């Protein structure tokens, strides 16, 4: 039994509310055009559409994969969730998707019980959901459960793999993720999951009391993938920590919506990283910051 099976079995036996897949895998054989990894969208549907237009995005060929947190706080959360109807759109689960899943019942009614995450969700941009219909909410819940895993592994054109999850990787899950061993994970197992909530990697990387040598010992390069891509923790610019790239650059607060061309980005090097500048409404290319390399 893997570590994940032990965790999921122990917690899942006393929890309810649904399950999500641990992972999905996108081999090169199922790709045709560009694959863009997009930072936390948080309801900024219009900015995404402008960015994709500037990239000459072709939905018949190209794909986007979000780092989670597609909704809340921004101007059009409903339209962002409706994107999950499209065959060219995928996402990993973020903590905001988890709050939705724990606050919306299967029939679309809102669960305002003590055991739900409802109050926390309302305090973090979820109030828009109260203006939507039960039918809409039920469809969004079902679609997230069916289509949105904790991790995506995607194959580049050079055959190397890239890992995507929302906040940071969970060492207990990595053997199954790298081994492409999918299994269902109970929502109850995710309430304190590093995959959805963790900030340890970035906290260590910017801690001035820790020497550079010690940081490299604490944060060795991730094995099993060329690099990993995360959102969750807002930064001014996309930033590398060894071979982990953090791309939540605060689009919902008028900063940048970062998009990574998965075939051209390389750890610690310029290239492959672009962003839609919300203020100037222009597409810009920039070199991600090296916080630790």
TrEMBL record:
Stretches assigned to the Calcineurin-like phosphoesterase domain: 35-119
Single biological process term from Gene Ontology: RNA decapping
Transmembrane segments: none
GO terms, molecular function: bis(5'-nucleosyl)-tetraphosphatase (symmetrical) activity; phosphatase activity
PANTHER family assigned to the protein according to its UniProt record, in alphabetical order: METALLOPHOSPHOESTERASE, SERINE_THREONINE-PROTEIN PHOSPHATASE 1
InterPro entries in alphabetical order: Ap4A_hydrolase, Calcineurin-like_PHP, Metallo-depent_PP-like
Superkingdom assignment: Bacteria
Protein name: Metallophosphoesterase
A single GO cellular-component term on record: cytoplasm
């Amino acid at each position: 039994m893997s570590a994940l099976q032990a965790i999921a079995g122990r917690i899942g036996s006393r929890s309810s509310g649904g399950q999500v897949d641990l992972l999905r895998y996108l081999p090169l054989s199922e790709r045709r055009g560009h694959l863009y990894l997009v930072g936390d969208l948080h309801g900024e549907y219009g900015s995404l559409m402008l960015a994709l237009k500037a990239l000459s995005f072709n939905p018949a060929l190209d794909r986007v994969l979000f780092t989670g947190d597609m909704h809340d706080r921004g101007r059009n959360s409903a339209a962002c969730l409706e994107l999950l109807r499209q065959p060219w759109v995928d996402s990993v689960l973020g903590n905001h998707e988890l709050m939705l899943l724990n606050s919306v019942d299967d029939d679309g009614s809102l669960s305002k019980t003590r055991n739900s995450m409802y109050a926390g969700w309302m305090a973090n941009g979820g109030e828009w959901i109260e203006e939507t219909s039960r039918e809409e909410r039920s469809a969004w819940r079902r679609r997230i459960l069916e289509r949105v895993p904790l991790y995506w592994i995607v194959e580049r054109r050079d055959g190397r793999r890239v890992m995507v999850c929302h906040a940071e990787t969970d060492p207990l899950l990595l053997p199954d993720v790298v081994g492409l061993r999918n299994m269902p994970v109970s929502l109850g197992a995710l309430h304190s999951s590093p995959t959805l909530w963790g900030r340890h990697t970035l906290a260590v990387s910017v801690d001035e009391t820790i020497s550079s040598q010690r940081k490299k010992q604490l944060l060795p390069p991730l094995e099993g993938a060329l690099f990993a891509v995360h959102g969750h923790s807002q930064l001014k610019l996309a930033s590398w920590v060894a071979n982990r790239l953090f791309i939540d650059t605060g689009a919902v607060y008028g900063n940048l919506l970062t998009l990574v061309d998965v075939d051209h980005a390389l750890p610690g090097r310029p290239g492959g990283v672009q962003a839609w500048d919300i203020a100037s409404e222009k597409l810009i290319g920039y070199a991600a910051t090296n916080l630790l390399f």
